[in-house]
Amino acid sequence: MTILFDKKIMLSEDAPAFFEKYIHYIHTINPQDLFEGKKNKQILKNKFIFKIHQLANLDSANLSIKTTNKNLEIYADFPRQSAVKIGTYPINRYLKRIIAQGAYPTVRIMGGRFKKVVPTDFDKDIIVDGVEPYGIILELHQPEVANEKIRKIDTLYHYVFKSEYSLVSVSKILMCCFAIFGLALGLGFMFLGFFMTGLMVIVAFFGVNSYTLILSENYKPKRIE
Description:
- Keywords: Membrane, Transmembrane, Transmembrane helix.
- The chain crosses the membrane at residues 165-185, 191-214.
- By secondary structure, the protein is α+β, with helices and mostly antiparallel strands.
- It has 2 domains: 2-145, no CATH class; 149-218.
- Helices cover 42% and strands 31% of the residues.
- The protein is built from 6 helices and 7 strands.
- It has helices at residues 15-29, 40-45, 93-100, 145-160, 164-191, 195-216, and strands at residues 3-11, 51-53, 62-67, 71-78, 81-90, 104-119, 125-141.
- A 7-stranded antiparallel beta sheet has the order 2-6-7-1-5-4-3.
- The radius of gyration is 31 Å and the shape is elongated.
C-alpha cells in the first residue's frame, strides 16, 4: 500500500480516555494485540526488544475523516462506543485532494503503558513497567487500484453470465468444441500415418471432454428466470 501522508497530529482531550476504553475492549476480544502478544519472559528472551508499548495501533476500531475549513479531524469508534474525535491536523490543498480521491486512514499509537528491559547490578535483566503521554501518527493510504479492477471484472462477469445455468451452458458448448476438434485432429494424424500420436490426441481432447460432459449431466444447476 502507498502511504500518501504520515505525520504526528495533535491529540484531542478525549483521546486518552478513548484509548483506555479501547484497551479494555481489546482485552475482551483479542488480548494478543496488547504488548504484541508477548509476556515478560518472552520480552526478556528477545534480545532485540528494549522497550515495548501496550498499544501500537487502532486496527480493531473504525476510523473516519472529517474536514472543516481549518482542520482535518480523525474520529474513532468500536462496538458499544460512540465515535470520538482523537486528533486534528491543519487542512491544506494536498490533504483535500487526496481525501477527495478516497485516501483512507490508519493510526499508529505512541506512548501509553510500556514494558522496558533494564539491566541490574547482578548482570541480570528485569522488566520495568512505565507510562508515557499518548501521541498519535496519522497515515493516509492510497486506495488500492486492484480492487477497482476486480470490481469491474466482477461486473462484466455478472453481465455476461446472468445465472449459474448460463455459465454451465457456455462451459458445455466449449467442451463440445474441444472434443470435436480433438477428434478431427486425431483422425488427421492417423490418416497421415501417425497412429499413436493421433490416438493420444483423441484421448486427450475427445475422450476427456466427452467424459466430462457425461459427468456434467448429473449436475443440474438451478435455473434463474
